[in-house]
Design brief:
Blueprint: E1 3-14, E2 17-28
Antiparallel strand pairs: 1-2
Length: 42
């Protein structure tokens, strides 16, 4: 594959709070990807 971004089993924490847990993401060249969260999340 011709990946632009490839993440495997990523967890993000801020102190004791888990923000993202065990995410896997693959974005190929030419793809459009949007990440949507709750209003006010970012």
């Amino acid at each position: 594959m011709d990946w632009v971004i490839k993440l495997e089993n990523v967890t993000v924490k801020d102190r004791d709070k888990t923000i993202i847990e065990n995410i896997t993401l693959e974005v190929e060249r030419g793809e459009w990807v949007g990440v949507i969260g709750p209003n006010g999340a970012g």
